[in-house]
Design brief:
The complex is a heterodimer of chains A (about 325) and B (about 290).
Chain A: H1 3-40, H2 44-48, H3 62-70, H4 73-104, H5 110-122, H6 125-137, H7 157-164, H8 171-183, H9 187-195, H10 200-211, H11 213-229, H12 232-237, H13 244-262, H14 264-268, H15 274-310
Chain B: H1 5-38, E1 41-45, E2 50-54, H2 58-66, H3 70-99, H4 106-113, H5 115-119, H6 122-130, H7 132-146, H8 148-158, H9 163-174, H10 176-181, H11 184-196, H12 199-207, H13 212-240, H14 246-257, H15 261-287
Antiparallel strand pairs in B: 1-2
The chains are: A mainly alpha (about 325), B mainly alpha (about 290).
Amino acid sequence: MNPATVRRLNEWTVSVLRTILLIGICYIILLPLINRLSTALMSVEDLYDQSVRWIPRNPTFRNFQLVWVHMEYVKAFTNSFLLALTTSVLQVASCTLVGYGLARFRFPGNGLIFGAAIFTLIVPPQLVIVPMYLNFRFFNFMGLLGENSINLIGTYWPFILTSLTGTGFRNGLYIFIMRQFFRGMPRELEEAAFIDGAGLFRTFFRVMLPGSVPGLIVAFLFSFVWQWNDYLYVTTFMSNRTFLPQALEAAPGRIGRMLSQTDALASSSGFLDNHFYSLINNAGMLLIILPLLILYIFMQRHFVESIERTGIVG
Amino acid sequence: MRLSFERQKKIGGFLFTLPFVIGFFLFFLYPLIQAVIFSFNELVLTSTTFELQPRGWENYRYALQVHPEFTRTFVEVMVQLLTRLPLIIAFSFFAATLLNQEFRGRALVRALFFLPVIMSAGIVMRLETSDYSVIMLEASRAGAIFGGNALRSLLGDSGYMPTWLLDYVVQAAESLPVVIRSSGVQILIFLAGLQSIPREIYEAVSVEGATPWERFWLITFPMLSPLILTNVIYTIVDSLTAMNNQLVVLIRDTMLRGAGYGASMAMAMIYFVAIAIILLIVYRLISRRIFYYV
């Protein structure tokens, strides 16, 4: 064989191996999603039937119907969407400002503030959730209002206040991302804008911000997804309102009660067991993930491309 | 009057970071200090305010000596972290090098690799750990694919492998799906790093006659070493504070259904100090071996 053939053969082997490997990994990644979809479409008989593995024998949308109604999906979706959108927009805004301040200004305390931002990341939320609850329950600006504290629990304020100040869930990470992003932008841009007579904030909004869109997208996507899936904060600060996670948690119980009242056979035959609730849970989880999947499909191109350009590397 | 650029920049730094500084004291440091105080007290809620009843070290003693599961779960969580950490780092490094190559359908594959970041959070993970059919399916299928027992007998029969290594290999194979699904962000970070290595360096050593193997160990690996630190720290924080972490679940249960706030705060405090110490040790160990390009 001549050297050219050997090289072509080599390249061909590498690409075949790579393809097999990638398909295998993608299979493992997609497995839970496919599992969930196939389970959610099954009827209870299918779940008991050992010969049914992937494709339901009696496919049904009944699980989705039940969970849609009993989660009060439209209401819960609206609540979750509004909360996730508000917090992520505010968080990205504040973290961008802070990230820019840390990236481009030398001032005493710069390193200390950056360290503080990273420090907020390593504290488990469970440690501070009770004091935070109490602070918002008896909110008095650290004692300024004295005895006349305000109850902010059950309102959007805990989310708005922590988001505005860049201290919400994992906000240290967004500060880190934005800081690294701004550090990677050419210094000349700013200086040119300043020489042309733009002030600090005009330089930021007109020159730096438009250039940082890829970084903003990454931070926004993380922020939106984590708020959407959040369970700890919504149940602590706004237990009076139903968001998607709580709605899903309540749904199986409601469906069980409803069925045991209307369908005597179902309740007496032991039909309402773990298998049945598992179908409901799977359908419900898909309904929670679905909006995120749609969002991701629209943003993934920007997401993957921009992560490369954010230069998280430093 | 217009301030000079330098002067404006000094003031600007304070202005831009001010929101976070306020928030840090108000919504982070203040609650954190309160948490420390609470862990030495029992918290009693009334309708208008809350009271603290001092308990000294009692909460800590309860967590470490009385609670039936805290210490055991603590050790389990740490051991699990130690076994998974190298796997996650190695896999995400490997996956990033794969995704950095040119091939057809790369955009699609990349999008798929980061999908777990979207799906593995909060409520989904919490339900997943308790959902009946998911557990059953995972158990039967993971067993069929990676065959822990089959692998064990295959490798064990040869008799060349020490038992501890055999145990580790089998465990690693069994936890592969979990490892792959928790590597999304880490792959992203490594990929960003790979993209930032200047092409000229590779061209230069190729001209000098370096093999791909040498290129990897002389350039790719050292250039990415700072990111190994970033990723190790991210992985530790991510897995220790995840909603489905057994210890996090235990602390939550203690608070809501068990011995109350004080005890759960003491547990959370022990846990937090442990996380901080681990991060410090890891940072010291790795940062000495890092190569910085600039």
